[in-house]
Amino acid sequence: MKLDILAFGAHPDDVELGCSGTILHHNSLGLQTGIIDLTRGELGTRGNADLRVKEAQKAAEILEVKVRENLLFADGFFNTDQYHLLQVIKKLRHYKPKVVLCNAMSDRHPDHGRAGKLISDACFYSGLIKIETNMNGFPQEAWRPDSVYHYVQDRYIKPDIAIDITAFMEQKTTAILAFSSQFFNPDSIEPQTPISGEDFLEVVKSRAADFGRQIGVRYAEGYTVERLIGVNSFFDLK
Question: Which of 37, 20, 26 has its CA nearest to residue 3?
Answer without folding.
Answer: 26
